[in-house]
Design a protein that fits this description.
This protein has 313 residues and is of the alpha/beta class. The chain has two domains: 219 residues, P-loop containing nucleotide triphosphate hydrolases (Rossmann fold, 3-Layer(aba) Sandwich), CATH 3.40.50; 63 residues, Alpha-Beta Plaits. Helices cover 34% and strands 29% of the residues. The chain contains ten helices and 14 strands. The strands form three sheets. Strands 6-7-8-3-9-10 form a six-stranded mixed beta sheet, sandwiched between helices. The protein has a four-stranded antiparallel beta sheet with strand order 2-1-4-5, with helices on one face. A four-stranded antiparallel beta sheet has the order 12-13-11-14, with helices on one face. The longest helix is centred in the middle third of the chain and has 16 residues. It starts with a strand and ends in a 13-residue tail after the last helix.
């Protein structure tokens, strides 16, 4: 759906580097997480896609066509800093922004009615934005963004300002849009949302891409071969021998169950055979790092993946 190849952008006459040799491929119909610390270059890239600014070098294409003004109507962009008019009624704003995206008044009314029903905000049509709470205004901003049914939806911190109930409501709507074929770029610092929603991620740090790929593959790349084990009916003598053989951490005993973490770089089947000699296995799980751990490790530089994981097209 979207490809960026070797995009570089500087500000202040080349003195400040915002993006350097940045490339990603966003598959159609996917949710693609665009991650990074503040100031990494995420917003610059989003502004380039929306043609608010231009890259100094490199290429961006949508559906194999070089980015051009005609693509603006195919894109929906919800910025982190919201941009609605406080003294205009909700209904007038929706019609205004719909027409800016090329919609007729009739189509804009039809789509607005649909979204008002989905988000249970029918009674807000004649209210001014200044009369709404931050969370309520967020819902209107979301409707403005998706009203024209964009093929590419860019959401920058879409859950900011929402309570947990409304955050789940918006999350469900985003997933529904994906199921109906919308391609979504999600920029967020909520790593739990990345794990729940994203198919792919790219992590930018200090203007450069640190890693990219499928979410599962990225998490796998940072694993440490640590397993969490719970045993019942433990043979204490054999467990003592096992303890000398393997690297065991965080051992606890509760209700005649022994739980612990262990590091093992060898074959998992051999490990399971050894555990069966010690006791009855109640649980055996490999500890895969969360996206939050991946983010911290990759950005801090304490760990680096062995290779760059490319999105499969």
């Amino acid at each position: 759906m979207l490809k960026a190849e070797n995009v570089t952008k500087t500000y202040n006459a080349g003195k400040k580097l915002a993006l350097e040799d940045f490339s990603i491929h966003v598959p159609e119909g996917s949710i693609y997480g665009l991650l990074g610390p503040n100031g990494a270059g995420k917003t610059t890239f989003i502004r380039i896609i929306n043609q608010i600014t231009q890259a100094d070098s490199g290429e961006v294409s949508i559906n194999n066509q070089q980015l051009n003004p005609e693509h603006i109507r195919q894109i929906g962009y919800m910025p982190e800093e919201r941009g609605l008019y406080k003294n205009m009624t909700v209904g007038d704003q929706l019609l205004y922004f719909g027409e800016l995206k090329g919609m007729t008044k009739k189509d804009a009314l039809k789509e607005a009615k649909y979204w008002f029903e989905q988000l249970e905000i029918d009674q807000w049509w004649k209210k001014k934005l200044s009369e709404l709470s931050k969370g309520m205004a967020q819902k209107i901003q979301f409707v403005v963004t998706v009203l024209h049914r964009p093929k590419l939806l860019i959401l920058d911190e879409p859950f900011s300002g929402f309570d947990p109930v409304n955050a789940n409501l918006i999350k469900d709507q985003i997933l529904n849009l994906k199921e109906n074929g919308t391609t979504i770029i999600l920029s967020t610092h909520r790593m739990e949302s990345v794990e729940e929603m994203c198919d792919y991620v790219a992590l930018i740090n200090q203007s450069r891409k640190v890693l990219d790929g499928k979410v599962f593959d990225v998490r796998e790349q940072f694993k440490k071969n640590i397993f969490n084990v719970t045993l019942a009916d433990v043979d204490q003598e054999r467990f003592a021998q096992f303890n000398h053989q393997f690297e065991i951490h965080n051992q606890t005993t509760q209700n005649q169950l022994v739980s612990f973490d262990l590091k093992n770089d060898s074959d998992q089947n051999l490990l399971l055979n050894e555990l069966l000699k010690v006791g009855r296995i109640r649980s055996f799980d490999e500890k895969i790092p969360s996206m939050n751990e991946v983010f911290i490790n990759a950005v801090s530089g304490t760990e680096k993946p062995a290779l760059s994981l490319k999105s499969e097209q």
